[in-house]
Write a structure and sequence with these properties.
15% helix, five-stranded mixed beta sheet, single chain, alpha+beta, 26 strands, five-stranded antiparallel beta sheet, elongated, 490 residues, 9 helices
């Protein structure tokens, strides 16, 4: 009995020793250059015990002598190593062997990069849809070497000026040819394409890449491939919503916004003009008093001053008894913030829904989108609704057919004189140059905004009321033109 008892104790001790934890150390390297791999996950298989290798590839972990260590690192094949009682285990990890051939889209199909002869750049659709643009041409900026993208207008929906490897003609056009799913389209219609429907864009740059299109491809070709269904026997539903604000990105300069400060400065300028020409101080004051509210001065009276008192005192300060707002019996004059009235901070909204799927015989892709991109200038903006359906069917092994339909409707609010009038139609220029004493609206004698017989608000164009803005101040009110209906009386 005593012998059996000691034998049982010996077996238990042996089992305890077999399951005893040991500390395993080692170094993990890569087979590419046998350099150390930091950040490799080292785990004991079947447990929650693990660690990560240091920058020099070294690691230390406690594990049972009969455990299995699993080494994992992104881009490398997983390695499993049994401990077998060893206290040092060095591992060499091999990179995953994945060969993905880049596909180049050309006129009548696709080829691999190795088969393609010429210069081109493929742009993934994810890069395009990630940018909040109304026209896909604006998303090409910085996407390819040799591709110049200039957006000369902030008008929503306006396409960018695209040049591939510079200007190739002096007298001819320089716009590249756009090809959507194998069909050439006009560049003016690109803004009707929803960027979320694009699978990829390929820029063909040189003569070898564009020879098949002849003279039309002389300025380069931009191939747009839209999304299709998949043959993975499952349906995929995607919904995306983007909401943001459109506002002026660069703030205005620090300018005078106080009407009193402007009137005081204008008065001092008139006074100085006489003193510098040798007139006496009394004569200079008299000239400034008589000229301030005329065409040689500011032209508008916006302060009500008690009878017999001056608007600006001899200390060049506004009369403390002056009250902002003046009525001549017919109109009421008070200044407005032209930048606030001309520009706006509006909410930009974009919603996209798509359903795709299919099997080996039939694939489908359906999508719908809505975009509302208001401009920061009142009266400008771009609104688009679009629907796309694409169905492909493998009728025979040698025959494939399909149908693709696309519907788009856009509301493009783009005042024509923004470009046809040149710099005089620049609303930013007008709002910045307008002094803080001039009204934006025409007001009745009681101070209410005037409305014409058609129910439209009347805006002060500079010559509408009994007062006229001087010739050196902007007289054309381009900002208010954006707010007017074509039937307005102005």
């Amino acid at each position: 009995m005593r012998r059996l008892f000691f034998m049982a104790i010996a077996v238990l001790c042996a089992g305890f020793a077999a399951a005893q934890n040991i500390t395993v150390t080692g170094v993990v390297t890569t087979s590419e250059d046998f350099g150390p791999l930091g950040g490799v996950t080292v785990a004991v298989q079947g447990t929650t015990t693990g660690t990560i290798t240091l920058d020099d590839g070294s690691y230390s972990i406690k594990a049972a002598s009969d455990a299995v260590l699993v080494f994992q690192f992104m881009g490398y094949e997983t390695v499993s190593m049994p401990v077998n009682g060893k206290k040092t285990i060095n591992v060499v990890m091999d990179p995953e062997s994945q060969q993905v051939e880049e596909i180049v889209v050309q006129a009548y199909g696709t080829v691999t990069r190795a088969q393609f002869v010429g210069s081109s750049t493929a742009i993934d659709g994810g890069q395009i849809s990630a940018k909040a643009v109304s026209n896909v041409t604006n998303a090409l900026a910085g996407a390819s070497a040799g591709l110049q993208v200039v957006n000369g207008s902030g008008q929503p929906g306006t396409g960018a000026t695209v040049r591939i490897r510079g200007v190739g003609s002096i007298n001819g056009g320089t716009t590249p040819l756009y090809v959507v799913d194998g069909t050439p389209v006009e560049s003016s219609t690109i803004n009707m394409i929803n960027s979320h429907d694009i699978e990829s864009m390929t820029v063909l740059k040189d003569a070898a890449a564009t020879a098949i299109y002849g003279a039309r491809g002389a300025n380069g070709v931009i191939m747009i491939t839209t999304k299709s269904g998949s043959s993975q026997n499952r349906s995929v539903v995607n919904f995306e919503a983007k909401v943001g604000t459109s506002k002026r990105g660069v703030p205005n300069y620090d300018v005078m916004t106080d009407p009193a400060m402007y009137m005081e400065t204008a008065y001092r300028a008139l006074y100085n003009s006489q003193v510098y020409n040798g007139k006496s101080s009394a004569a200079a004051y008299a000239y400034a008093d008589a000229t301030l509210l005329t065409q040689s001065g500011v032209g508008y009276q916006i302060y009500d001053v008690p009878a017999g008192q001056l608007l600006i005192g001899r200390n060049f300060k506004l009369n403390p008894n002056a009250k902002l707002g003046y009525s001549d019996g017919t109109y009421y004059y008070t200044p407005d913030d032209w930048e606030k009235e001309s520009l706006q901070s509006a909410m930009r909204q974009e919603y996209n829904l798509s359903v795709s799927g299919g099997d080996e015989k039939t694939q489908y892709f359906l999508s719908g989108g809505y975009l509302n991109d208001p401009g920061i200038i009142n009266g400008s903006g771009f609104e688009r609704m679009n629907m796309t359906s694409k169905i492909d069917a493998n009728v025979k092994k040698w025959m494939k057919t399909g149908i693709s339909t696309r519907y788009s409707h856009a509301n493009y609010q783009n005042p024509g004189y923004q470009t046809s009038w040149g710099s005089t139609a620049n609303v930013f220029y007008t709002a910045n140059m307008m002094a803080p004493i001039y009204p934006f609206y025409v007001r009745n004698a009681d101070g209410t905004k005037m409305v014409d017989g058609n129910g439209y608000t009347v805006y002060d164009s500079g010559t509408y009321t009994n007062m006229t803005r001087p010739g050196d101040a902007p007289r054309g009110n381009n900002a208010i033109n954006l707010l007017l209906d074509s039937n307005s009386s102005l």
